[in-house]
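Handout, section B. The chain below has 182 residues.
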Amino acid sequence: MKKTEEKKTAAKTAAKTAEAKPAVKPAAKTTKPAAAKKTATPAAAKKTTAKTTAKTKEAPVTAAKKPGRKPKPVTIETICGLVEKKIAKFKASAIKETVAVDIEVWGFEDGSNHKMYIEVKDGKASVMPHSYDAKDFRVSLSFANAVDFANGKITLAALLEDKDFYAEGNISAAVKLAKLFD
């Protein structure tokens, strides 16, 4: 008897608790079907990652350039560095006397002219971005030709034929220095 009374009291308290709680609205229905909510098995997940990996391998992603980025301007120092790399070191060691040329490069983007020199002394060649007083000859050439020569796009022979190239001074010294670029 006690058990039946306990069950009745429990039922009464449950009924009171249910009345005390406010009514809750049912949740809104989603548009996705119940089958779509199932999670993929590990094997299926591996297949999808393999497919996406294969797609990324086919079309590599390239880094986008920042808009408005200007290339570094070419300076006389840049040209000197390129010319110095172009000089054949083993040929410089064959020249025993001192040979120097003063080079004026005109027509830079800002309209200025800059000087540089090439000197071979004691079998070592050096290229510096300023004027040289003790020169054997002097050369004047355009900025475009200087950049093309430094980058290997034009040869010394082609420069000599160009109208934008001017040289004066000791021709035998010029021929010796020209051997560095053969």
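Note. The chain has a mean pLDDT of 77. Compare this with the example in section A.
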